[in-house]
Amino acid sequence: MSNSSYPHLLPQLQSLADAPAEIRIQRIRADRWIGYARAEAALAAMEDLLTFPKRTRMPNLLLVGPSNNGKTKIIEKFRRNHLRGAVGAVECAISVPVLNVQMPPAPDERRFFAAVLEALGAPDRNNERLATRQDMAMRMLRATDVRLLVIDEVHNILSGSRAQQRRFLNLLRWLGNELQIPLIAVGTAEALRAIQSDDQLANRFTPFSLPPWQHDAEYLRLLNTLEAMLPLRERSSLEDPPFAQKLLIAAEGILGEVVCLVTTAAAAAVAAGEERIRIERIDDIGFIPPRERRRVAS
Known about the structure:
This protein is α/β, with parallel strands linked by helices. The protein is 47% helix and 8% strand. The protein has helices at residues 21-29, 37-50, 71-81, 109-119, 130-143, 162-179, 189-196, 199-204, 217-228, 241-251, 255-271, 290-297; strands at residues 60-64, 98-102, 148-152, 183-187, 205-209. It has a five-stranded parallel β-sheet. α6 links the parallel β3 (148-152) and β4. α1 runs antiparallel to α11 (255-271). It is elongated and about 60 Å long.
């Protein structure tokens, strides 16, 4: 078959539609970046921060939204866009324009600076005091010319005591002042509550929300984009109103759940030799909606 037989697919994927089933299923299950308007707006806001000149009080961004709704994907995409190379050791200072670290499970400054050092490739020394780790982390942040620091899972601040929360919020404010670089905090609605509990931080962090998806034109474009990335030989027409609504309800409006549901259904279709996702098969692929998973877990 010629590539033109699959006009519903992206040009670079059309030849893959003729590949064996196991290869196509592997591609369907692979991680992917899906561009959409809100994500591009978030990336543009981060680019603006990255070019901001140093000053005493730097602007910051708080990327906030439900779990599994695309926040970490956006951050990772931004980091990859500015990847200069990995730092292999303390002595090997390579430029790292964007550093992404994950907030510890609790607001623990010692573990936070350990995460910074790990992200910068420094050897782990478990017995180091907080002051030692902090000093080394700050020196490496400057040596590697970090121009923007991303802190994911910021809502974990609220898992600590009030005293721990206060110390860590003070640490965030101090980091921005000391390094004179923008900070991007990433988390759920609880992250917004944590940041806004400190008046000074609330004034420094501009919230950027990634709300649950609605059945609108942008959602239908998302489904079209996703379908064009899946090497099925027939068009599934995910954007048809009944189909789109069924997917949205099952996924509870969460981007990661939509992608999981569609890719699971696509892989099942290839395995069954059906070559398109059928609306009547959605209930048979074993997808458990987020609310039901939470109920079972509790």
